[in-house]
């Protein structure tokens, strides 16, 4: 900027605004323009028939989608778990606005979703039925869920709660874990992509579990009274393993989380005192713990009924999706 004599623009020092912009939404603009251009060049070089893109919901995914659509490649957006941690307005209505104006190239030609609940949300916001297809979710297939049950292998003393970090809320959940460890015995399981971000000395009340073991083995190892999470994927396994579940949202806005319908069997708790109170009741009231396990199984059953039974049934329709003649 200095060498090009544009360090000051319209009387405003660029240097003075650089720090605020570093944490501002505008910082995404140059990155995604670059991503879009790379996507376009890749499409022209590789000449694919169809692009299947997960995380199409976020800015990076929209940029990749636009690059390939500009190159006349058909695009199929595959619903990602991130959908359940976004607000309704961010996840769907913003896509609807883009789809209904000159920015429709940012939205995939076909959106493949896990179940009718998500499909109906897209339709409610004006998407055409021909552009939304329920393909199910293999992770919700009953046979897959049943295979998670494993013999109990208790290697360590039982703990009060296991908290599962995710890619976007790990820092908040990690801080929550340390606070709860003042009252409870806590195990924090980081998201695999965030393992190296969390360094803390383990003690008798707080453990960071970074071994590469499955969720089932983790639960069988620690035998927690309950588990806490923010994203949806891990919740399915926890419910199947009959561990009382606590949902801790990352903000106060309504989410699309399928485990948390309007009338939920899984409590939504953010306050430390409320979480401790729930854990104490689970720990000292066997009848309440039993009711929570039953409620969790019923919740899982509804999820499987609404989504899992359709898993892979329509997947061939996505795989055989041919581009229209241009």
Provide a short characterization of the protein structure.
The chain is α/β, with parallel strands linked by helices and 326 residues long.
Walk me through what this model shows.
This protein is of the alpha/beta class and 326 residues long. The protein is 40% helix and 12% strand. It is built from twelve helices and eleven strands. Strands 9-8-7-10-11 form a five-stranded parallel beta sheet, with helices on both faces. The chain has a four-stranded parallel beta sheet with strand order 3-4-5-6, with helices on one face. Strands 1-2 form a two-stranded antiparallel ribbon. Mean pLDDT is 78; it is low at 319-326.
Distance between the termini: 44 Å
Largest sheet: 5 strands, parallel
Strand content: 5-15%
The number of helical elements comes to 12
Strand order across the largest sheet: 9-8-7-10-11
Radius of gyration: 23 Å
Name the average pLDDT. 78
H/E order of the elements? EEHHEHEHEHEHEHEEHEHEHHH
Structural class: alpha/beta
The share of residues in helices is 40-55%
Give start-end ranges of low-pLDDT stretches.
Answer: 319-326
Shape: globular
Q: Please report the total strand number as a whole number.
A: 11
Write the layout of secondary structure elements.
Layout: E1 8-9, E2 12-13, H1 14-22, H2 28-46, E3 50-54, H3 59-70, E4 74-78, H4 88-99, E5 110-113, H5 116-124, E6 132-134, H6 142-146, E7 161-164, H7 170-180, E8 186-189, E9 206-208, H8 215-222, E10 226-229, H9 233-240, E11 245-247, H10 272-284, H11 286-306, H12 315-319
Parallel strand pairs: 3-4, 4-5, 5-6, 7-8, 7-10, 8-9, 10-11
Antiparallel strand pairs: 1-2
């Amino acid at each position: 900027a200095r060498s090009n004599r544009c360090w000051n623009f319209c009387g405003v020092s660029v240097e003075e605004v650089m720090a605020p912009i570093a944490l501002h939404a505008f910082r995404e603009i140059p990155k995604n323009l670059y991503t879009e251009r790379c996507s376009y060049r890749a499409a022209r070089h590789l000449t694919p028939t169809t692009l299947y893109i997960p995380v199409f919901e976020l800015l990076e995914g929209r940029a990749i989608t636009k690059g390939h659509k500009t190159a006349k490649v058909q695009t199929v957006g595959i619903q990602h778990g991130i959908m359940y941690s976004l607000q309704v307005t961010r996840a769907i209505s913003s896509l609807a606005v883009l789809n209904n104006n000159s920015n429709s190239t940012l939205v995939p030609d076909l959106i493949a979703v896990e179940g009718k609940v998500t499909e109906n949300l897209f339709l409610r916001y004006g998407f055409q039925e021909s552009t939304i297809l329920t393909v199910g979710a293999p992770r919700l297939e009953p046979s897959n869920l049943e295979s998670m049950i494993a013999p109990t292998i208790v290697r360590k003393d039982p703990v009060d709660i296991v908290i599962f970090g995710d890619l976007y809320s790990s820092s908040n959940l990690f801080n929550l874990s340390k606070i709860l460890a003042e009252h409870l015995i806590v195990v924090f399981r980081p998201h695999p992509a965030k393992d190296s971000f969390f360094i803390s000395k383990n003690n008798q009340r707080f453990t960071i579990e970074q071994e590469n073991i499955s969720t089932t083995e983790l639960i069988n190892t620690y035998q927690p009274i309950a588990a806490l999470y923010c994203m949806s994927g891990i919740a399915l396994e926890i419910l199947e393993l009959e561990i009382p579940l606590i949902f801790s949202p990352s903000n106060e806005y309504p989410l699309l989380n399928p485990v948390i319908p309007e009338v939920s069997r899984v409590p939504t708790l953010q306050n430390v005192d409320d979480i401790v109170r729930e854990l104490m009741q689970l720990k000292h009231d066997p009848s309440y713990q039993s009711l929570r396990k039953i409620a969790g199984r019923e919740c899982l059953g509804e999820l499987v009924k609404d989504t899992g039974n359709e898993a892979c049934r329509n997947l061939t329709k996505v795989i055989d999706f041919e581009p229209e003649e241009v």
